[in-house]
Amino acid sequence: MSAPLAQAFLRTLDHLIDMGDRRSAALQLGEGFRDIRLNT
Fold it and tell me: CA 17, CA 1: separation in Å to the nearest integer?
């Protein structure tokens, strides 16, 4: 997965986590996103 696409997914997961979705938190901590960092 490309870095920009992974960052977009992480932003979406962040919004879902803010709404209380625990499954998104588990995805965000998974191996697929481990090396992806968001630019703030």
Answer: 21
Task: Say how many C-beta atoms besides its own lie within 10 A of residue 24's C-beta.
Answer: 19
What the block records as the tokens of 12 is 């979406």
Asked, for residue 40, whether it belongs to a domain, the answer is no
Are 24 and 17 contacting, i.e. CB atoms less than 8 angstroms apart? yes
pTM for the predicted model, two decimal places: 0.74
Total Cβ atoms within 10 A of residue 34? 8
For 1-40, how does the pLDDT look when each residue is reduced to its tens digit (9 = 90+)?
788 898 899 999 999 999 999 999 898 888 888 888 777 6
Report if residue 12 sits inside a domain.
Answer: yes
